[in-house]
Amino acid sequence: MASPKNNTSEKRVTHFRSFLTAVSHDVKKVKASWEQQELNEGRRFNGVSIFDPIEVSLTRIIAKLLKPAGEHGQGGRFLEALLAQANLGSKLDASAAKVYPEHLTQAIENDLRRIDTLVCLPDYVVGIEYKPFDAPDLKNQVFDYLQYLKTIAGRRRTTLLYLSHDGDGPPPISIASKELAKAKKSGTLQVHCYSDFIKEWLCACQACCAAPRVLSFLGEFLAYIEWMSSNLTDETYMDKQETRRLITKAALESAENLEATLAIFKNFQAAWGELVARFADRLEKSLRRRLNPLYA
Q1: What is the count of structural domains for the chain?
Q2: What is the pTM of this model?
Q3: Where in the sequence is the domain holding 281, given as residue range(s)?
Q4: Fewer beta carbons below 10 Å: N end or C end of the chain?
């Protein structure tokens, strides 16, 4: 006759297996739903990401949108939206502005630097430095940019928009801490998070855009920036949202389910080690068969 202790263990094992089977079944349903959405909506497809743009490519795209005489046909609306977002003036007329991508700093001693985007208005000169992928600053980089803007501006006001990957300001190698504080206080330097600033700007562009084709591109570009900043995977919606919600709900439905979940957590490393060992064993056997057909 089985002891009460053995009966309890068998019940736990049975419940454990039932829990895993139920969760596995639900995950398969979520995956099937995701695949159907992929078929109908193509969620992962993006007209920008297929070109795998680098920092320079993104800079050029933004510069094209900022140009009042650009192919988008929207005049100065997109540039005005950016200026308003940076609090540089909501009533500035950007129709006559000149936009220069990758502009050389020829008016200062260090004349081989390139400001990602230079915007020249009748009353304002704005430089924009983009750091979407957290590229390191060069020695005196931001200091030189500020000097250059001041040199070419004359009596016009100047501002450098520094859009960093995480919203942090330039490091001391780029500009001394004292000079950094002075520039930020005077408004000649603004620091923003690249993804947050660009996403907000693109939303403002969508709001003022009158051309459906351009509006469609703005949506694609916005989706790409969201994907880039969130490090989304191909199955983000399934893995990070619905599956997490499903497993959490199942784990908390009963004390037995919670116990099974804790058991999985405690023994996951052991199970993973066994899985890796089995994979290595099968791989070795497969290679042996390929190298020696007589190997059984």
Answers
A1: 2
A2: 0.71
A3: 12-43+239-291
A4: N
